[in-house]
Amino acid sequence: MEKLLIENLENNTEDKIAVVNKIIKFSNVDGPGNRIAIFFQGCNIDCAYCHNPETISIGSNEYTKNYSVTSLLEEVEKVKHFIKGVTVSGGECSLQYQFISNFFKNIKLKYPNLTCFVDTNGTLDLSKDLFRDFIKYTDYFMLDVKAWKSDDHIKLTGINNDNILKNLLFLKNSNKLFEVRTVIVPGVLDNETTVEKVSEIISDTEINYKLIKYRSIGVRETKLVGINSPTTQYMENLKKLSLSFGIKNVVII
Q: For residue 103, is it within any domain?
């Protein structure tokens, strides 16, 4: 599946138009400082706890808008004096990596004071030469590590997490990883193992670790039926576990 997806990406030379689901002009949860957050349409996995399933389908629909690099830069121009940077998310924005590479390149030229961040599920192997410019023009990545154990990840998303764990190390070693995010789902995932293993890997860095409390509001009714949110105490215990590895910034949301 990974090989086929990469081949499709390599054969896709159309990088002039992007399909965008929505734009939040001012966000303080999508990276450091006030940022414009751009949510690209299309995702290559279907997480059971997805809170924005309308962004999963590939291609345009009645809820999306097509942008050229020029027209998207115009959106940044409107708010450039009030933001610290630009964050692209989704869906899975890396599926439109060619467009984003060009977009970020132009951001660097026109607005050198703005930082460029990518929020990704990490399912594409970013160490491949295919993504060289994507890495080059991105200041930092925010990476989802949903589960450490492959069986848990398959149960949650339908695919294994080989590339995600590979990207965790690759982005860390490339000094491109700003934040790791893990959604805590009690009774479904081995949350303790995930928090422990991730914390061990990023313990000697300035990388942030965000522990996100699973909430059923907004999740499709057919998914994770009967699963409750973790208690405050459970989340605090996981935070203490992470901090015990020397993580400098662990945030519960």
A: yes
Question: For position 108, which CATH number holds?
Answer: 3.20.20.70
Q: What is the pLDDT of residues 223-235, one digit of tens each?
A: 888 898 999 999 9
Instruction: Give the Cα separation of 54 and 220 in Å (integer).
Output: 11
Asked whether residue 184 is domain-assigned, the answer is no
Both tokens of residue 35?
A: 């940022």
| Helix, strand or coil, per DSSP, at residue 234 | helix
Longest dimension (CA), the chain: 50
Name the strand (E) or helix (H) holding 142. strand 140-144
- Domain assignment present for 87: yes
Residues 133 and 22: their CA atoms lie apart, in Å, by 24
Give the number of domains in the chain: 1
DSSP state of 229: P
pLDDT of 13 strictly over 60? no
Query: 91 is in which domain, residue-wise?
Result: 2-138
Q: To the nearest whole number, what is the mean pLDDT of the chain?
A: 93
Measured in Å, how far apart are the chain's first and last C-alpha atoms?
33
pLDDT one-digit tens code per residue, 28-47: 999 999 999 999 999 999 99
pLDDT bracket for residue 84 (50, 70, 90): very high
For the purposes of burial, counting CB atoms within 10 Å of the CB of 19, is it exposed (0-12), middle (13-18) or buried (19 or more)? buried
Q: What is the pLDDT of residue 10?
A: 44
